[in-house]
Amino acid sequence: MQNSQISHEIFKGSELEEIVDRVIKSQDTKLDDVIFLLESPEIQRLGLIGNNIRENMYGNRVSFINNIILNYTNVCVTYCKFCAFYRPPGHEESYTVSKNEILDRIVFAKAKYNIKQVLFQGGHNPKLNTEYFEDIFKSIKRKCPDVAIHGLSASEIDMISKVDRCSSREVLERLHFAGLESLPGAGAEILVDEVKDIISPLKISSQRWLDIMDIAHSLGIRSSATMMYGTVETIEQRARHILKIADLQKKTGGFMAFIPWSFEPNNTEIQESGTVQYAMGGFELLKMISVSRIIFKGIIDHLQSSWLTNGIGMAQLAIYHGSDDFGGTLIGEEVVSATGARSTELLAKNIINSVKAMGYVPVERNNNYDIIKYY
To answer: Which of 64, 71, 99, 356 has a C-alpha 20 to 30 A away from that of 110?
Structure first.
């Protein structure tokens, strides 16, 4: 089915027809259009169009990456109210993983699981400088040269630059030379400062996150873009976040994927204060996936279904609504698991079986989203 025919066949007679047509055909999406789509209860129709766009791009393939997540420290001085993982400096439960243990974990995972990527993330630890990460990254590349380092959020880069009293560009240049290949999208939450002032007042501003991503892209360091929804933000603020990501992507082309994920309130300050008691649930996830696929058509190629915070069943349904990537195996994850919400470990065979159960073809990818194996 050609894209020009999509809305006429799926949305005929629907109030969504005009807006969906305009968004798909235009590279200049308006805020009101995104708000309208995010507010729409027409999840089935939005899912049909999201799935149709995905099928036109990828057919019956669904990708994943074999990786581990290495949370190198839980020491953090930004004290985000949505986080159950961090511990303040000096806390009895605080830790920083030694270089030898980091290397042991990666070498073991490479030998046992043939990982293609290490997702390297942690807290904002004021004792760790650029040299610390340079040494670790160079050591990783010496031990496992074909394991990509997808690490350090924009907010972690900002913290490192403050520790060393240098520019973020200098930090990124040095770490890129040491082996850093791409940045995860963490730290974005909702790219509206009115939201950040409530849930993460000590973390970098929305513009600072965008600026660091802009610098990274200019240096050839690609990245993911994320959105954590379901805290205190409004629909309009979610829409503004999506448009800010789209605008930067039109400028740099550096985002490889967009990953929306639902806030998990368990064991967080936000839950304890009574601000948010429950996660948003599947309806909002599927709508977010569908709308993201429509808005980012022709802008950002890949859309992750985020099994980590939403579970395997919802990740499967998200494929039918427009996501093309299952994400990673994430062996060793500690941040979401700190909420106690669900198991956060998944082996490749579980993803492969989940994709096959849907009638799709699972494909393993590398850090750059190149397909390396069909199952």
So the answer is: 356
